[in-house]
Amino acid sequence: TERNFLWKRIYLSSSGGGNSLKSSHNHGLRLFLRRLAAFTLAEVLITLGIIGVVAAMTMPSLVAKYQIKQYETALKEVYSILSNGFKQVMVDTGCPDLECTGIFISAGEGLINNSSDTEFQKNIDVVAKNVFKVVKSYKGDEITPRTIKYLKGDTTAEFGGNSGYEMYLPNGTIVAFQNFGCGEVPNNEGSLKNLCGFISVDLNGEKLPNTMGKDIFALGGLYNNGRIVPNTSLLWAQSKVGVGKGENYTDYWRNNSRLCGKPNVSLKNDTTPEIVGQDCFARVLENNFEIDYLK
After folding, report:
1. CB–CB of 270/257 below 8 Å?
2. Neighbours of 91 (CB within 10 A)
3. Residue 7's pLDDT band (boundaries 50, 70, 90)?
4. How far is Cα 63 from Cα 67, in angstroms, rounded to an integer?
5. Tens digits of per-residue pLDDT, 220-244?
6. Is the pTM of the predicted complex or chain greater than 0.85?
7. Which DSSP string do the residues of 47-110 spell out, in sequence order?
8. Rounded CA gap, 254 and 236, in Å?
9. What are the angstrom distances between the C-alpha of 182 and each of 1, 102, 167?
């Protein structure tokens, strides 16, 4: 046959006159060519096609798992950086709490309008450059709000819209601060006491997907003792003045699936029509930094 003829030609040319290969090399080459000759071109193409189909089926899943792992690692890292950083500020200034450091100056009724909170911006800028070693930062009106998406549903929101200060960490994470002056702040049910600031993060900077609960999280409140407590966590509910223990609190994420889905249910199987995702950090922290709802 044509295939056997081709094999003979190759074999003879490899073993004919003028061959400088050692006998051991010739033997290895003959074995390789024998195996090669055992498959037709059609068989090889079919095999490659099957491999391609299997790869196409498995690659999206592998890429998704890798991306989730990156989010988990980045979230754990930025939480550690910020927590340790503010505790270090207290040590360096010899202060027992953040209010003593003078960073979070109360702006009275203008608290929510952080864009005009110049004293806070000046103070936090010093901390950002000396403690967090930021790459760049923006203050007040310099901040351009970006459109971000809910975890599930068509609703959009803004990142940085109410922030008084944004800093870009060396690892690429954007951190947005809102000042609350370490005082008592009114909230839906009761009030939050000793709340110095509110922190949100974009784990991969301005890159996509810009979706809450994936690359964007509200880390939560930065309290006077230097601790970051996630919104909708049980500890956050318990910290509210006049609310009690908080186990049945309606804004505890486990009691309201709209906040971050149903407990122990993945997003793809969750029947909740709309999930915000902004406060999913409470769920992630309870699960030891595992983003279980994306798996």
Report:
1. yes
2. 9
3. very low
4. 6
5. 999 999 999 998 898 887 776 555 5
6. no
7. HHHHHHHHHHHHHHHHHHHHHHHHHHHHHHHHHHHHHHHHHHHHHHHT-SSHHHHT-S---GGG
8. 13
9. 88, 10, 20
**Cβ contacts of 28-34, under 8 Å, gap ≥ 24:** 33/7, 34/7
- Report the alpha-carbon distance of residue 120 to residue 104 in Å, rounded: 6
Long-range pairs for 256-260: beta carbons < 8 A, 24 or more residues apart: 256/232, 259/232, 260/151, 260/213, 260/232, 260/293
Amino acid found at 211:
T
Residue 54, pLDDT score:
81
DSSP assignment of 138-198 equals: EEGGG---EEEE-SBSS-EEEESTT-SEEEE-TTS-EEEEEEEEEEEEE-SSSEEEEEEEE
Furthest-apart CA atoms within the chain: distance in Å: 98
Q: Which one is predicted more confidently, 173 or 187?
A: 173
Tell me which amino acid residue 266 is. S
| Residue type, position 79, single letter | Y
Q: Which residue has the tokens 């029947």?
A: 271
Match 């270090």 to its residue by tokens.
88
**Residue whose tokens read 């960073």:** 103
> Could you tell me the two tokens for 57?
């089926």
137 close to 120: Cβ distance less than 8 angstroms: no
- For residue 129, the Cα-to-chain-centroid distance in whole angstroms is 23
